[in-house]
């Protein structure tokens, strides 16, 4: 390994984690790269680069923050060879692999190549003449005061189902534990290659979500009775669409890779971090 890139949470204190990475790298001749304005905040010795350079020049990307930071690191690593190690500085940290106290052990395991990489699917949303990439979800969300989200879901050019709802969420398996889960969508293993379409607070007669193949062409069409809708990409507003406009969605398997050290399984993380409980009708063993 010749270089590793740091992606930092914009506000949380990451000094202890940064120092652990720098100490690990110093004894191995590994160059540490960081986004210029981020590393300036923590006054560290990493080499400053532009965001577009980080994924290209790194052999490993280390995300220090919460799930939002991890998603940003995955976008920076999109299409590159560097896997992403998530270090949790927050509370939930569903996507992260380790907490800060475990970081030295994690880096030692990477030294010994005692890790696996887990491919993650991305979804590209084309609308308004541009493309936005999500690793969690793309959602069309009602703007307060502008009416409901009335949206048709077209699959391979044919209308499949339509919803009137507060939002319609199209999630990857990675995003199945985020907005989609809150809207009633299923928890889905990241090993599954699919897109999950889930309405949030639906007002329509048909209120179930659907699971679509990554090989399907998926389009969201804003119907005439809809209000103006915000397009949220991984939780951030990327633009707006109105009646008659469409969003074309294209799934890309293996867009990024996440480091897994075998400490926990996806199902163990889901059960613990989402606080899943068993039915009250099932006796305790």
From TrEMBL:
GO terms for cellular component: cytoplasm. The keyword Transcription does not apply. InterPro entries: ATP-NAD_kinase_N, ATP-NAD_kinase_PpnK-typ_C, NAD/diacylglycerol_kinase_sf, NADK. It is an enzyme of class 2 (transferase). Keywords: ATP-binding, Cytoplasm, Kinase, NAD, NADP, Nucleotide-binding, Transferase. NAD(+) binds at residues 67-68, 72, 136-137, 166, 177-182, 201, 236. Pfam families: NAD_kinase, NAD_kinase_C. Its EC number is 2.7.1.23. Its cofactor is a divalent metal cation. It is found in: Cytoplasm. One of its GO terms (molecular function) is NAD+ kinase activity. Transmembrane segments: none annotated. One of its GO terms (biological process) is NADP+ biosynthetic process. It comes from the Bacteria. The active site is at 67 (proton acceptor). It catalyses: NAD(+) + ATP = ADP + NADP(+) + H(+). PANTHER family: NAD KINASE. Involved in the regulation of the intracellular balance of NAD and NADP, and is a key enzyme in the biosynthesis of NADP. Catalyzes specifically the phosphorylation on 2'-hydroxyl of the adenosine moiety of NAD to yield NADP. Belongs to the NAD kinase family. This is NAD kinase. It comes from Amycolatopsis dendrobii. The lineage of its organism: Bacteria, Bacillati, Actinomycetota, Actinomycetes, Pseudonocardiales.
